[in-house]
């Protein structure tokens, strides 16, 4: 089963099926499994959000070390979102914590940045067990087909075998770790 881990608009499901996806996580929650992405300046904002008891997979884009550490160690957080905005937070100690807690890390390809992509590829060989590469598409022309994702990763330095594993199996591991939703 091939899973797209971020879709902003569920109405593009037919196109997702056409390019090869069987399932998806949607921000709008109309179809597929619901996911919520929050941007957190500190751990307090994550705690306050979790008090609302969301019935969805929660992805956190941390903007401080405090928020990153809390998101890694809290089992209610499904994954961490990595971008150019928070790349500076991912030092060796935080990467070791990610490995210790086996926390998935997502890069959203709609905000594509070669430097960020190269970093997560390198880190995935040592610290990140489940890297996620998401389209986060709101329109059909923003969808990244699975083989295009694999090609993109290979161009940026990933082994083809690892790239295939990350695209095909990391999303499945995310879903299986969070079956309670």
Keywords:
TIM Barrel; alpha/beta; 181 residues; seven-stranded parallel sheet
Description:
It is a single chain. It contains seven helices and seven strands. The model has no long low-confidence stretch (mean pLDDT 94). It has 181 residues and is of the alpha/beta class. The chain has a seven-stranded parallel sheet with strand order 1-2-3-4-5-6-7. It has a single domain, classed as Metal-dependent hydrolases (TIM Barrel).
Summarize the structure.
With 181 residues, the protein is of the alpha/beta class.
Let me know the average pLDDT: 94
CATH top level assignment: Alpha Beta
Shape: globular
Instruction: Provide the CATH architecture.
Output: Alpha-Beta Barrel
Strand content range: 15-25%
Number of helices: 7
SSE diagram, text form:
Elements: E1 3-7, H1 13-19, E2 23-26, E3 33-40, H2 43-50, E4 57-62, H3 65-73, E5 79-82, H4 92-101, E6 105-108, H5 114-124, E7 131-134, H6 146-155, H7 160-177
Parallel strand pairs: 1-2, 2-3, 3-4, 4-5, 5-6, 6-7
Helix pairs in contact: 2-3, 3-4, 6-7
């Amino acid at each position: 089963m091939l899973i797209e881990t971020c879709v902003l608009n569920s109405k593009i499901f037919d196109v997702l099926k056409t390019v090869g996806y069987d399932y998806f996580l949607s921000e709008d929650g109309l179809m597929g499994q619901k996911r919520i992405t929050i941007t957190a300046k500190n751990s307090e904002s994550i705690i306050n959000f979790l008090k609302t008891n969301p019935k969805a997979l929660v992805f956190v884009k941390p903007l401080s070390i405090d928020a990153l550490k809390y998101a890694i160690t809290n089992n209610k957080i499904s994954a961490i979102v990595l971008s150019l905005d928070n790349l500076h937070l991912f030092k060796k100690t935080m990467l070791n914590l990610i490995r210790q807690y086996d926390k998935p890390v997502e890069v959203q390809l709609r905000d594509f940045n070669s430097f960020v992509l190269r970093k997560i590829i390198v880190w995935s060989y040592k610290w990140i067990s489940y890297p996620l590469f998401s389209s986060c598409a709101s329109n059909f022309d923003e969808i990244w087909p699975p083989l295009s994702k694999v090609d993109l990763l290979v161009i940026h330095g990933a082994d083809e075998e690892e790239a295939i594993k990350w695209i095909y199996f990391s999303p499945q591991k995310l879903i299986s770790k969070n079956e309670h939703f």
